Amino acid sequence: MPVSISKRRPRASKKTETEKPEASLKDPRIGCNSICSVFFSSLLYRVPLTILFLFFIYLWSTSTTVISGNVVHICISSRKLNDLYCLTAGTQPGLHVPVSNFTKPISENVIKSEEEKSVFVLGEGEDKIFAKNERDSDNFTVGASPNVIKNETSTGERGSGLDQDSKLINEKNLDSFLVDSDSETGEERYRYINSKDEDEETALKAVDKYLKIQRSWLSMGNNRNRQGSCQGKGIYVYDLPSKFNKDLLGECSDMVPWANFCSYFKNDALGESIESLGKGWFRTHQYSLEPIFHSRVLKHPCRVYDENLAKLFYVPFYGGIDVLRWHFKNVSEDVKDVLAIEVVKWLGSKQSWTKNSGKDHVFVLGKISWDFRRNNKFSWGSSLLEMQEMKTPTKLLIERNPWDVNDVAIPHPTFFHPKTDDDISTWQNKIIMKQRRSLISFAGGARPGNPDSIRSTLIDQCRSSPDQCRFLNCTSGGCDKPESVIELFQDSEFCLQPPGDSPTRKSVFDSLVAGCIPVIFDPYTAYYQYAWHLPEDHRTYSVYINKEDLKEKKVNVIKKLMSMSLREREDMRSYIVHELLPGLVYGDPNGKFESFRDAFDITIDSLLHMISKKL
Predict the structure, then answer these.
(1) Nearest partner of 187 among 156, 143, 155, judged by Cα
(2) How far, rounded to the nearest angstrom, does the alpha carbon of residue 110 sit from its chain's CA centroid?
(3) pTM above 0.85?
(4) Which residue, 4, 45, 218, 570, could crosslink 137 as a Cys pair with Cβ 3.0–4.6 Å?
C-alpha cells in the first residue's frame, strides 16, 4: 500500500512555545540549571584561550625579532641565557644570536652576503631600532695612541654602536684613565698613560699616529669568497734557498738547551694533536708562527707563480727561528747576522724587489721586534730590522715596535687551529655555555729579578683570596701542559695578564680563545699592538688596570674585579666568543672556512688593502 511521506516539518503550536518560558519562571531550579550550564560551558572555553593569550603576551615581551637578509627570526631572551635563542632559525636549527651583538658592532670576522648588509633589531620592550651596517675600513676614525682608547666622532667607527646601558656599564671602568682632548682635532680621548715630560708626550703621539695609519689599512674582506676575487690580488711566494727556512727547522733537536723542538714542528708546525681538548687542538709553540704562516700562504687561492701578476710578495725567511737557535749559544754577532745579511742581499738582486724598494714585500717574523734590533747596548738577537733595506717592507711580528709604522703586530699562535666553520661554532657554543667556577685566575711566574714587575704583587693578592682567585705557577712547570692552562682559563671569568719578559703575552690570546676576559696592566701588551685583530675600544673585550696604580697600592685587583656585575661579564664574554675569537686563531692549513675569517685571512686581506694604499 503506498504511503505518502511529507518533507514539511510539523509546526509547533503557538501554545506550546508560549508555555515554555512560563514553566521556567514557575520553577526557579529549571532556570538556574539552564543559566549555570551556559555559564560554565562558556568558561571552560575561555580559560584556555585566556591562558594562551597571556602566554603570547609573555612571549612577545621577552622576544626579539631579527630580520637578517630575507629571513625573519623570532628570538627569546632570558637572564639565564647568554644568547638569544631563535625559534625560527629555518635551516639553521639551534641558531644562537649573541645578546651583545645588538649593542656591539658587527664582526668583520663573519662574512656577510650581499643581502645581509644590514641587520635590524626590533623590540626588547623599547621603541628603538638599532641598525648595523657594513662599514668600509676607510670610514674608521681611529686614533688609538698610547693616550687614546676611543674617538666617538663617527657612528661608523669600530668600537661605537654601544647602547645606553652598555655605555653606562663601561663608564665604571674609566677610573684608570685620564680624560683629555686632542689638541689638534679637539676629539675626546682617554689616556692609558699620563706622560711625565714633553719627550714622552711626543713618543705617545707617534704611537697614536702609527696605529691610526695601520687601522686605515684594515680590510673588512667581505668579497673574499666571490668568484674572481683574486683579480689584481696575486700573492707571489719567493722560492728561497732552503737554508733560510726548511733547514732551520731541521736543527730542532739542538735549538735550545732544555728542550727538543722537533715535536713542535710536526703537522705543518701546529705540533702534536691534543685529543682531550677536542678537534683542532695542538701543542703549538709560541714561536711557530713563521712555518704556520708559510704553509697557509702556499695554499692561498690568490697565489701566483708569475712575478708580473703579483701585488704582494711574501719572503719566507724564518728569521725568528734563526734568532732562537743563537739565543743561548756563545757565538759572535757576525755569526748571528749571517742569514739576515744573505737574505737581504739575495732580495737585492731581484727586479721585483728594486721596482718598489720592497714596499710591496712582507716578512713574517715569529718573535718580538726587539729580537731583530740588536744595537751596541745589547748583544741579544740579530740586527735584521736595523738594516736600511728593511725599513720599507712590512714586517709581521707577534710584538711590534710601536714607533715603526711598518711593524705590524699579529696574534700569537694559540693551541686552537680549527679546520672548518663547524669546528669554530662547536667551540664557541661550548665555552659560551661553560660554567665558570673561579672569578679570577693567573697562570705565570714571578719575576723577582725585575724591579718593574708587578707579578709578585698579583700573586700575593691572588693567594690572599683563594675563594676568588686561582694561581697556576709556571715557574714550577705548571704551565708545561696546554691542557692545564686552557682548562684553567675555561673555568675562570677573568685572566690576569701582566707583562713578562716583554709587554705582550701569548696568554692573552689563550685566554680570549677560552672565553676568559683578559685583565691588562700595560697598554703595550695589547692596545698599542694588534690594530687589525683587536678593536680600538678595549672595554668591549678586556679590563684595564694601570700597573702604576698597582705598584703604589692604589688598587686591589681582586676587589675591583669582584665589583663588576654579571651583566658586564656576560656582555664582554659574548663579544669575545662571537665577535673576536674566529679572527684570533690560525686555521689548519688543510682546512677551509666559508663563514669565518681567521687571523691569517684578516692579515692577508689587510696586507693587500695596505699595498693598494701605499703604491
Answers:
(1) 143
(2) 11
(3) no
(4) 218
